[in-house]
Amino acid sequence: MQIELQHITKRFGQVLANDDVSITVQAGSIHGLLGENGAGKSTIVKVLSGFISRDSGSVLLDGQTANIKTPADAIRSGVGMLHQDPLDFPPLSVLDNFVVGRGEVLAKGFLSGLKLVNLDRARQELLRLTEAFNFSLNPDDRVSDLSVGERQQLEMIRLLSLGVKTLILDEPTTGISASQKTALFEAARRLASEGKSVIFVSHKLEDVEELCDRVTVMRAGKIVGNAEIPCPDSVLIDLIFGKELAPPIKPNTTQSQPMLELTNLVVKDDRLTLKMGDFTAHRGEVIGLAGLEGSGQQLLLLLCAGLTRPLRGKIAIDRLDMTQKPYAQYLKQGIGYSPADRLKDGLIRGLSIHEHVILRHPNQKLFIDWKSTHQNALEAIAMFNIRGKPNSHVERLSGGNQQRTQLALLPVPLNLLLMEHPTRGLDIESTLWVWQQLIARCQTGTTILFMSSDLDEIMQYSDRVLVFSGGQVSDPIAASKLTAEKLGQMIGGRFE
Length: 496
Ligand SMILES: Nc1ncnc2c1ncn2[C@@H]1O[C@H](COP(=O)(O)OP(=O)(O)OP(=O)(O)O)[C@@H](O)[C@H]1O
Ligand SMILES: [Mg+2]
Hints:
By secondary structure, the protein is of the alpha/beta class. Helix content is 32%, strand content 25%. Strand 13 (258-268) and strand 14 (273-276) form a beta hairpin. Helix 4 packs across helix 5 and helix 12 crosses helix 13 (370-383). The longest helix has 16 residues, at 178-193. Residues 41-42, 84, 170, 398-399 line the site of magnesium ion.
């Protein structure tokens, strides 16, 4: 399906999120959409998929003007979108989620809202599509137990079964495993070969190079260029940011004193038992935790934060035994935690940046000093270059700006900083910038443990790496001795 977005403009209050945006996507092609955080990528694809109404401009599908006002209109016109944050119903089963939006209308007139779904037929369709795309979905699993990659697979086949001919993928490779990425890319290529079109929004140039035929680059709400792929990274970076970026540098910040000492640990949650030999992280050191999602990395971070207790073994932070201490004691001991799911665990929907700053501010107990905390919020916004205002609600910020807000709220100084996917959703410049900030913290003695599904990030910024596989943990390995290939093998469970 050929898509023509013509002169689309969209304003949110004072923010001009899309400023006269025109993009043409050819049928049978995979079209990349690049741009820094807040550039307007999600906005334009949400306009196309009916989640946002445009102020002006038009959408043509195969040359015909399309009247898309709602997501249901878009799906009827053949356009479906996978969102940056999944929009499924986690308490329901895979099959129940699959049938959302389906069904045959039972009656006309005021009863036309009543629809009948044939669950047996839906189950067969689900299994057929799962197999055709080499996905791994079980109709009876609960969606809350699925990984991000599996939820994405489910949404993708749901949209395809509704007859979608254009699929929009908004940052689909953040948080999925390497094999899920391979399956996703194969599925996208297959759709393109069938004459469907795919719009691929991403910050990862290597993914764009691998998958796309052509890219459009946006900056501050405007289109700043188009390029055929292959295209050198330096050219794309120049288009995205309007300047060259210096390569990252990781100085050695490790000191000799121990900061985190783990002794003979066994930790359990309802899915996994994590067993670990003795391990010490030093002051100023960066420890990367690699592994497939759910292999025990998060459990270790939760344990180090005092948010879960070990079944056996000991944990000491800055030489103080913390094993049975309450969470408040961990906070006193200088731990900070940055979770992956920003809007669920990190920030509070409905509250503004200013209100988040107030919640974080140690002096605001009984009375709130709105004036000084407003100033604090302005400072956080300026320092972390957040595209938003003190009164911006966090759920309205772009994905990358939510991450910046979360980072801006971490206390200073800290002994131990525990991070899930520190740069998930951030553009390349922001990723470099965040790591500069983190390295600066290490230089003042903070120890960082971070998990990431981005192997380059693990190798680039860790001093040592622990690899997790099904609750087993490798011996620590110096990052300088790792290759992507070796790390990939270890993640697959080959520790020798
Ligand atoms: N619902 C909304 N209300 C107010 N402002 C919004 C809303 N949605 C987006 N914006 C603003 O519009 C601008 C563009 O946001 P958009 O989400 O399109 O960026 P993006 O290019 O997808 O960024 P990212 O890479 O961080 O996901 C940002 O300044 C954002 O804060
Ligand atoms: Mg976005």
